Amino acid sequence: MANPIDRNLVNRRPPTVLLVEDDARVRKWIHEELEKLGYNLLEAGDGADALVIAELHRGPIDIVVTDVVMPRVDGPELVKALVALRPDVKVLYISGYPEALLRKSTGPSTDDNYLQKPFDMNTLIARITELLDSEDSE
Fold first, then answer.
1. CA Rg, the chain, in Å?
2. Which of 19, 60, 114, 121 would you call most buried, defined as having the most Cβ atoms within 10 angstroms of its Cβ?
3. What topology does CATH give the domain 23-124?
């Protein structure tokens, strides 16, 4: 069975993911798995570093995969600033905290842009693919 991302890589450049996660082990795991599938990866350990990366990176950033609760600049603050810089960026929040508690900080949204930890890589890839595909249909 083909990976869900394969169709996103046909006839276009590989998607660029800004991965923002303060747990180095989780960040490394996600980075390695997405890189194997052909994604371009930018990564940061918190929202403050991610904003610097987003400002300095000259190419596109298709999607930000960000933890919600992080030191310095948290996920929702990051997304607010990032969308001001890059209005078309897609967002996927990941968190170990219950979704209901996080809605206060992330605001209203759909289940499509939130993924509860722990998750498996197939679920993460499917969610990223859905978000990237929604870009194509707009």
1. 14
2. 19
3. Rossmann fold (3.40.50)
